[in-house]
Structures are given as structure tokens and as C-alpha cells.
Design goal:
- With 162 residues, the protein is mainly α.
- Helix content is 65%, strand content 7%.
- It has a two-stranded antiparallel ribbon.
- It is elongated, with a radius of gyration of 18 Å.
Length: 162
């Protein structure tokens, strides 16, 4: 494993360690990573999903005080909203291409479910759209990112053959 030169200035690479094979599939210019591997893309998804999960946990804590229907929605939202990151982390550790794709596909499904529960909470008046606009937007972005990661994983030779 080798530390990427100049990584101190990059939030995603702050403490990142890269194997030589990952560096071989990347392009470095002036000590900065300018092209990334699929591993780096999945790392970014996992980091964003972690940040998202922390906000979902805080939102759910608020919802649990808003009555029985809000508690039910909060329980569902807690499960799927935190599962996006957990499955992204698992995908990163996938030993095979099918393992990576399967875990990332679960992450995609969980992001779709999160969007559903956020929309339901808005539609039923449990929350306002302004109250969850960041969470709704980020869930939709995570859905798009995980969808692309699955498509890329399916079409690439990365991590070996399927």
C-alpha cells in the first residue's frame, strides 16, 4: 500500500491508502489524483452515504417525537437511510465483481426506498419539504451514483470476470 502524494489537500484522500494496482489504474498529475478508479468512486459513495446516514439518524430522532405515524415512518427511514452506506462499505470490500455489484445494487434499492419514505413523510405532513430538502436531494443523488456504479461494475473487467 502506498499513500497518495499530496493527499493532505483532498478530503476524500485524507487518510486513504492506495494499492499499487489502484494507482496503476489512476492518473496522477502534480502529486494530485486527477483520474480515479472504480474503487475511489465507491469510496466517495460510501463517504457521502455515511454523511447522509448521520443526518438521517438526527432526522429520525426528531420524527420519533411527532406521534405514532411519524414513528413508523422514522423506523423505516432509519433502516433504509443508514443501509445505503453500510452496503456501500460492504461493496468496497467485495472480493469479486459479482459481490461488489450485488452489494451496490442493495445500496441502490435502499436509496430508492429512502426517497419513498421521505416523500411519504412530506405528503402526510409529518415533515415539510423544506425540512427534508437536503435529505431528499442527497438520497436521489446517491440513487443515481449507485445506479452508475452498478452499470460500471457490470460493464467493466475491474475485479476480474463475473
Amino acid at each position: 500500500m502506498k499513500k497518495l502524494p499530496g493527499a493532505q489537500s483532498n478530503r476524500w484522500a485524507n487518510s486513504a491508502m492506495f494499492s499499487m494496482s489502484e494507482l496503476e489504474n489512476s492518473r496522477i498529475s502534480g502529486g494530485q489524483l486527477v483520474e480515479t478508479t472504480t474503487d475511489m468512486a465507491s469510496r466517495i459513495i460510501a463517504e457521502r452515504a455515511f454523511d447522509f446516514a448521520t443526518r438521517i439518524v438526527k432526522l429520525c430522532e426528531k420524527l420519533w417525537t411527532r406521534g405514532p405515524a411519524a414513528r413508523k415512518i422514522a423506523d423505516q427511514l432509519f433502516d433504509c437511510g443508514t443501509s445505503i452506506g453500510a452496503n456501500s462499505e460492504e461493496a468496497e470490500g467485495g472480493q469479486t465483481k459479482p459481490d461488489f455489484i450485488a452489494k451496490m445494487a442493495v445500496s441502490r434499492k435502499e436509496s430508492r426506498e429512502t426517497v419513498y419514505w421521505l416523500r411519504l413523510a412530506i405528503a402526510t405532513g409529518i415533515v415539510t419539504k423544506d425540512e427534508v430538502s437536503w435529505e431528499l436531494d442527497e438520497a436521489q443523488q446517491l440513487k443515481a451514483m449507485t445506479t452508475q456504479a452498478v452499470k460500471t461494475g457490470q460493464s467493466s473487467t475491474w475485479r476480474g470476470a463475473s
